[in-house]
Amino acid sequence: MFSKSGIAMAVVAGIVLIAATSGGGAAAPLHTGNAPHAVTGPVIPGGADGRPRLLQCPPSEWAYGGGYSVTPAAGRQLAPQATDVVESHPNDNGTGWIVAVRKDHYRTPWGIESSPANLTVHAVCTEGQAGPHGG
Asked: How many C-alpha atoms does 61 have within 13 Å on its Cβ side?
């Protein structure tokens, strides 16, 4: 899931940047080149197995935040237990987001054949400036 505070910080930083560069007189046009935007990775079948998964931001962009979504495969249902988040953080150089979670799904209707559910990693990326996590 995306961090609301991280997105809010990005919006405030963008407003401060625009205000600082607009100077006096006529208002400067809105520049959205540095605006944070969502990047969604592919669905990783069985990816909720606790192993770290990395989603890179596009070239010259920095990870500002990130998260994940877990979904069952066709004909399966998510287990009722909460998702175990092992890690969710930027990579070492701040250019991507790493997620590792554990969540099972099972064949319906009998609740048998448990296996890791599908995982999708999400990142909030921004270009032209380092994110709050370094880079």
From this structure: 22
Q: At 112, which helix (H) or strand (E)?
A: strand 112-116
The whole-number pLDDT of residue 21 equals: 36
Taking alpha carbons only, the member of 135, 122, 23 closest to residue 71 is: 122
- pTM metric for this prediction: 0.70
Q: Which among 69, 57, 120, 119 is positioned nearest to 94, based on CA atoms? A: 57
Q: How many CB atoms lie within 10 A of CB 17?
A: 13
What's the rounded Cα separation, in Å, for the pair 16 and 130? Answer: 15
The DSSP-derived string for 67-108 is EEEEEPPTTEEE-SSPPEEEEEEE-TTSSEEEEEEE-EEEET
Q: Span 62-89, mean pLDDT?
A: 95
Strand partners, 123: 39, 66
Identity (one letter) of the amino acid at 36? Answer: P
DSSP state for residue 21 in the 8-state scheme: H
- Please name the residue that has the structure tokens 């809105």: 30
Cis geometry, peptide bond prior to residue 42 (ω within 30 degrees of 0): no
